Amino acid sequence: MASETSTAERLDHETRLHEDDHHSIKLWLRLLTCSSLIESRLRGALREEFDTTLPRFDFLAQLQRVPEGLTMGELSRRLMVSGGNVSGIAAQLVSEGLVDRNPLPDNRRTFMVKLTPKGRKAFNRMAQRHEQWVIGLLGHLESKEVEQLMVLLDRVKRGLQ
């Protein structure tokens, strides 16, 4: 229980706030805290139930969306990580039989990655549980509150673009 408390405290970025901080700083730290807490819970649940990581889940999710597969470069761009990170995850998933990685016929240096039937089945199980976890984490909000948050966060997002 002590480690749970210390993890929650570590992820509560709002502890850095001072009363006279600008409201934008307060908002940023509240958003960061919420995101960190949700991500931490999801990471733990994926590790505990599926013995996998969030980056591996995200990798599989990208492939699920594009059944014909993606190049390693496209995966790197979509996941916003280096090619080396994508290569390492791909190698692990290939060895587990969850994805296939094959060179393109017209460019042997470019590899196409796609889910295997085993990978699709494994990801679908994880995605179903992931959805349940997210609902469990955010389901205490009423639909009207979610709508309000979505409108406000859309405004934040548009202001950042």
Question: How would you describe this protein?
Answer:
The protein is mainly α and 161 residues long. It folds into two domains: 1-51; 52-136, Winged helix-like DNA-binding domain superfamily/Winged helix DNA-binding domain (Arc Repressor Mutant, subunit A, Orthogonal Bundle), CATH 1.10.10.10. Helix content is 69%, strand content 11%. The protein contains seven helices and three strands; from the N terminus they run αααβααββαα. The protein has helices spanning 2-11, 23-50, 54-65, 72-79, 83-95, 117-138, 143-160; strands at 70-71, 99-104, 107-115. A three-stranded antiparallel beta sheet has the order 1-3-2. Strand 2 and strand 3 (107-115) form a beta hairpin. The radius of gyration is 19 Å and the shape is elongated.
The secondary-structure element order is HHHEHHEEHH
**Please, how many domains?**
2
Query: Which CATH architecture of the largest domain would you pick?
Result: Orthogonal Bundle
Instruction: Work out the radius of gyration.
Output: 19 Å
Q: Note the total helix count.
A: 7
Q: Proportion of β residues?
A: 5-15%
What is the CA–CA distance across the termini?
Answer: 41 Å
Helix share, percent = 55-70%
Question: Which strand order does the major sheet show?
Answer: 1-3-2
CATH evolutionary superfamily of the largest domain = Winged helix-like DNA-binding domain superfamily/Winged helix DNA-binding domain
Poorly predicted parts: none
Structural class: mainly alpha
Report the CATH C-level class of the largest domain: Mainly Alpha
How would a textbook summarize the main sheet?
Answer: 3 strands, antiparallel
The rough form would be described as elongated
Tally of DSSP β-strands = 3
In CATH, the topology of the largest domain is named: Arc Repressor Mutant, subunit A
- Overall residue-averaged pLDDT value: 90
